[in-house]
Amino acid sequence: MRGRLASEWLTVRVQFVLAAFFVLAGIAKIADPPGFAHEIHNYGLVPGKLVNAMALILPWLEVITGVGLFLGIARRSAARLLGILLIVFIVALGINLARKKPVDCGCFGTAKVQKTDAERLKDMKLVILRDVGLLLLAGQILYATKREERI
Amino acid sequence: MDAFLFVAAAVLAALFSNAFAGTERRLKWIGSYERGAAPTGVGPGVAKPTPGPEAVVTPSLGAPAGAKAFPPHPDKASADISGEDVMELHARKTVPFLDARRTSVYRDGHIAGARPFSVWESDVDEKVKAYFAEGTDQSAPIVVYCSGGNCEDSHMLAEKLYLVGFDNVLIYKDGYPDWIQRGLPVTKGSEP
Fold first, then answer.
1. What's residue A116's pLDDT?
2. Parallel, antiparallel, or unpaired for β B169-172 and B186-187?
3. Which of A40, A45, A52 should one mutate to test binding to chain B, selecting the residue with the greatest count of B CBs within 10 A?
């Protein structure tokens, strides 16, 4: 079981899925930084002065790290970085869910369809589940590439 | 070390991408979405421009006799008003309407006569400054709206206007969806 989990065959496919997700999500946000800044502001967790810088840098970080992971460039660092981002997203959504404050995820840019508060809260739970799944993928890459760790 | 390179590359890419972005896509690196973030060069302590005769709008101008009064509220940035109040103010044809939603959404349809003032775009402070420079009566009603519901854009724009001296900003609390539901006049495109 452990051997299969750490197999290169599986790792390459996991890399592809995780990389594709982040590259697509990043490109959607790069297309509309003000829209993404709006979404970040809605979370109510980032100081107003930092909202724009985050909206500008985060999507590029997703794309560049995703491309790095796809090409196998420093894949451990890439998986670790994407894992950290996923933890941040899960915590941010979790805090707003605990506050019962409905927010659009903003994961793929601004939502085109106006949703009700109940729909948003339901979506937030699903997004957390999805992000936990993606976090497991990042974990698989880190597990399978332990030997690549530099000393 | 590799993680640092990823972050550095992302910062560089963001710098280039933002530098070459158009007005609607560009962002200022330091956000101004907090209370007290007034556009620089205008506001209390800065000499008000002398209003031109055409630019002055008094609170009563265009209001029929016996119409509801909307007095200034210098103690707070904005006051919420209902759809009925908005209809009455719109009918006066002298009350400015400002749309705080994104410009792309504005183009898809906006309240007839409303001007685009998206708080999320890089030129909003310049628009507020230009509006101030028009010499409009700062105590006359101004209606600001966004998408209703949880939308905070109109409150953010109201805050900016208040901080430069406009003390009668009225927020259409149910926003554009309510206007549409009422079947009231809308305009599509970039022009008010």
1. 82
2. unpaired
3. A52
Dihedral-angle region of residue B63 (phi above 0 means left; psi in -120 to 50 means alpha; beta otherwise): beta
With respect to residue B16, please indicate whether it lies within any of the assigned structural domains. Answer: no
pLDDT at A113: 72
Contact across the interface for A32 and B25, Cβ inside 8 Å: yes
Successive 10-residue mean pLDDT values, chain B, 192 residues: 92 96 89 62 49 44 71 93 95 95 93 94 91 91 90 91 94 94 94 90
Task: Let me know if residue B57 belongs to a domain.
Answer: yes
Position A62 pLDDT exceeds 90: yes
* B9 located within any domain: no
Counted domains in chain B: 1
Band (A145; pLDDT cuts 50, 70, 90):
very high
A contact test, residue of B4, B5, B6, B18 with most A CBs within 10 A: B6
Terminal alpha carbon distance of chain A: 27
pLDDT at A55 over 90: yes
Q: What are the boundaries of each domain within chain A? A: 2-145
Asked if residue B167 belongs to a domain, the reply is yes
Task: Please indicate whether, in this complex, the C-beta atoms of A49 and B31 are within 8 angstroms of each other.
Answer: yes
Cα separation, B71 vs B140, whole angstroms: 8
- CA B135 to chain centroid: 16
**Beta-carbon separation of B27 and A60 below 8 A:** no
DSSP B122-190: TTHHHHHHHHHHTT--TTS-EEEE-SSTT--HHHHHHHHHHHTT---EEEETTHHHHHHHTT--EE-SS
Rg (CA), chain A: 16
Amino acid of residue A115: K
Measured in degrees and rounded to the nearest 5, phi and psi for residue B110 equal -145, 170
